[in-house]
Fold this protein.
Amino acid sequence: MHIPPKSTTFAAYWKHGVVCVTPPLRRCLPMRKHLLHILLAALLLTACHTPRQDARRLQRTLLDRQQKALALTAQLQESLAGNSFDSVWNLTQNAEPGILFYVFDRQGMVYWSDNWLAGSEVILRRYDQWYYHQFSNAHCVCRWTRALPYNILTVIPVKYAYPIQTKELHNTFIAPFRASDRLQVLPPSAAVPKGEPFAVKDGDGRTLFAVSRPDTVPEYRQENLAESFSYKEVLGGNTYRDSARKMRIYTFMEIVLFSLVFILGIVGLVRNHGFRNMRLATKFLYISVALLLFVSVYVFFVSTMHVRRRHERQQEETLQRKTLYLQKALQDLYFWNLSLSERNAEGMNIDLRDLSYTYETDIHVYDMQGNLVGSSAPLLFEKGLISRHIAPEPFFSKKADMLLHERIGDLEYLAAYTGFYNGNYVQIGYIAVPLFLSSEEVEAEAENFLAKLLPPYLIVLLLAFLINFFFSRGLTQPLSELSERMRHFRIGQPGNRISYDRNDEMGQLVTRYNEMVEELERSSEKLARSEREGAWRTMARQIAHEINNPLTPMKLTIQQLQRARRMGDEERFNEYFDKSTTLLIEQIDNLSRIAQSFSQFAKMPEVVTSEVDIAQRLFSVISLFRQNSGQVPIRYIGAQEGVCALADSEQIGQVFNNLIKNALQAIEGREGGDIIVMLKQDGQTVEVSVSDNGCGIPPDIQDKVFRPNFTTKNTGMGLGLAISKNIVEGSAGTITFETSPSGTTFFVRLRCPV
């Protein structure tokens, strides 16, 4: 690089191809975002440790940044083509963070988007090609672009390169570049051979810089800037860690308390299998303690933030007052000056140093072109820690009075800017007054606040816990007693009522419970009486039904005898008389047995299984029903005798009576009624089916057919099929049915004797 002599003017620098660039410090991200970046960087560093991996990651990130920078540069060219510096300002202020722009004409630098870089010189090199350049405080990748009559320098900072490092000031990689801080960034001349993985290249494959890891770690050192008031915290370290010990103890106590309560809460949830299964008193306790903890944490953090913010506002107000005092003092000192230049820098430095001792702050003065002309701490600029150009916000926005957050590396500080006026109130420059927000003072304020706040907090939390514990137990004690009484509640036993003499919600609940107990006892007496009456009514219906079933065929038999007698056929009468009297005697015996069985506990007779000639019993029942009043034909298919099965010889005839009677009732009033009774033997099973061509059984009542007391007829008690089901199942058989709109068929299946 060709460097002209110190006396060379800016135009001579341009003539020799050298431009002095000291852009201002850019506005930084909030501290929380910065801490988040540090945590993410730590995670990445744990995954990638080798220089080769760091170099690959740096190259990928650099290629992405270069693409974004080229797109922004193209937009900047369009704005400069129209000489619209307002659009240039809006574009660069809203641009991607970490991409810097500097615009030059033949007179010098006319625009800078940031004053990130400091105290270095760059050469106007080949256009449209990326190259590496090290400024005084950063390693960067640069690119020149022509935008007649301007030249644009696009800069992508990669890593800080401050000449000194302290406990607070570190030469870390700049976001979004992340790698181990121990890695060194080397210029292309010191790069490893082509093709090695430690080289970082651009999109065209040219090596921009290389990274390597030295064997030794640089030691931190402190710079003695005795005349500096604002930057001692940066260069000499601070006592934050020492002053924060008590605060860490308070925070630890708070964390232990909350952790203990949280663990106890989790244990309670696990033991009770969730919040819903907890007792009401425990739920009250959980909710109240959770609300108290939430409010306490909220008030704690809000109060702490308020203390910090209040202290910061006080420091900002103090800084603004100092700036106004300094503005008036400098106006008096340079009352007759029409401009500021580097020729009076030495004398101005003396004046600024005197004022800095008076107001205990550092002072920087810039001319109307934004160049530094004087400072109370010139060593900062000589070492390249701070740019020699003013921040772009007060310079290009035409608003000289403002507060800005600026940075040296990752350390943030506050800078107040105002105009420098002479005696005629003509602006001849800018005044900048920096202030590092003292973390020591802020933490001391927070520490004092916590020392007063935490003890009452702990006492209040403990008292609230105890009060809630006893209050919840007293509140839910009547409920517990009510639950216990209900658990041991027995109708008719003494001690079911609860005594509670308070007229609150619990008292009303206890009163309703006692009224419910009295009403329940009265209702139980009525229910018992009703059940007894219902049982007798049900038994009476069953007796009537069982007696009525044999009476129907007996009536038909007698009517048939009367008809045969009137016909005068004595031989036929005698034959039918002998057969009928036998059947009548059987039915009368059945009635006697039913009456005797119902007299014993009003139950149906027990089923006594024996070998029965099913064919003979079935045919005899069919013979009785063939002479029915409706003249409905009953067709029989099967043997008349000789088919045996296991059943109750006395009750199986009643089953056939019920089925044939139901079939007759199903087709009552219908023309063309027909009943088919079929008997067949299939292996060890005898099946009797009774089919009718009635209207069938509706789907909504099919599951109720065998239910006692259920009937769809105007007459009858609904016990026939229920009794038949009991008789068949008592004989180890089954009774089922199939139905459709064209008729219904009942199937009785009995086992054959072995």
